[in-house]
Amino acid sequence: MTSTTFSRQTTPESLTEQQIASYRRDGFVHLPGVLSRAEAERYAGAALDAEARLRELGTSTGDIFTQLLQLWQHDETLRQLTLDPDLAGIATRLAGVPLRLWHDQLLIKAPHNGAATEYHQDEPYWPHQGSRHALSAWVALVDVPAERGCMTFIPGSQHLTGLRAQDLGDHDDLHSLAPELAYRPRVTVPLRAGDCTFHHSLLAHSANANATDDPRIAHVTIYMDADTRYAPEKAAHHPVTDLLGLISGTGCRTSTFHRSPQAREWQRGRAVRRGAGRAVTAATFRSCPPAPVPLLPHGPAFWPSSGQDGVLRTIESGPAVIKHSPTARTSPDRTPSRGRLCGGPVSEVRMRGGCRVVIPAKCGRR
């Protein structure tokens, strides 16, 4: 086994000015080896364990992907990945502003899922205002060639602003809002396990269907400007914020939106240990643990990203699974059903927006 199996190829220190310039020009950048192969394998196992705990939900034919959110609050292993100081340091250097966590998510495409994730922007779904920059770290936990559902980007499209949220299951939705995108070059980026693409929150992007015999497993950490303010008028229902009692116009500064001290110190250029009174290198500071945020027995749920035509109005506290399905958009049924999950009751809501949302009432730490 080679040394690269255990070492990271890209770190905040090794990030080049050329890579930063490429990201700021195109809206995305491919960074090899932000995790070692061994780390990626470990996190992939944790991701499949998390999905197995929710396996009772099943995977219906035609689903685009299964989305598990806020697992950093419930799973100790995945928490380490979400709060990874190298990822936060790289994100801060790319963005050029102080950042904090918006949320994490696992995106799992089942083998032969039969549907692509169509072109969309991320930011229109979010209740944010005053953000100078937001970006996602999309980390492949398994090899993701084009056939397994890797990402495709439209370079430079991050300058398109003011668009409504787009339907992930509608191939023509984004292009109907911005027809010029149909004639722009596109870049498809296959990834090895441990590789990452960072992309701007307004960049148009898609992902192929998974045509292989193995699941596609990706972990995404989404960072927002540390000074972002809550704006429910932009996205009225978003359970990451709905359960927090935030006031419109106030900053997103609760412990849910963890601000990594490593990211803060990367913005300043040098790190100083509080109370110690001495400067240390960023590499040394990365070894310091992040500010403690307790694991929660259950946390906020999440609403369907492609469901702008339906609103989930009754939300219980708990980690959420979202099953995106293009075949479900014609169904008007929103009747809750009951089941069992993680040893407790769940509520299922079917919505016209292309998703099935299942919210555990309580899911203990495992």
Features:
alpha+beta; disordered C terminus; 18% helix; 18 strands; ten-stranded antiparallel sheet; four-stranded antiparallel sheet; 366 residues; Jelly Rolls; globular
Describe this structure in words.
It is built from eight helices and 18 strands. It has 366 residues and is of the alpha+beta class. The chain has one domain: q2cbj1_9rhob like domain (Jelly Rolls, Sandwich). A ten-stranded antiparallel beta sheet has the order 1-9-6-11-3-2-15-18-17-16. The protein has a four-stranded antiparallel beta sheet with strand order 4-10-7-8. The longest helix is centred in the N-terminal third of the chain and has 16 residues. The protein starts with 16 loop residues before the first helix and ends in a 6-residue tail after the last strand. The C terminus is likely disordered.
Question: What is the topology?
Answer:
Layout: H1 17-26, E1 28-31, H2 37-52, E2 65-69, H3 76-82, H4 85-95, E3 99-109, E4 117-120, E5 128-129, E6 134-140, E7 151-153, H5 173-177, E8 187-189, E9 196-200, E10 205-207, E11 216-225, E12 229-230, H6 239-242, H7 261-268, E13 271-272, E14 279-280, H8 282-286, E15 321-324, E16 337-341, E17 344-351, E18 355-360
Helix pairs in contact: 4-7
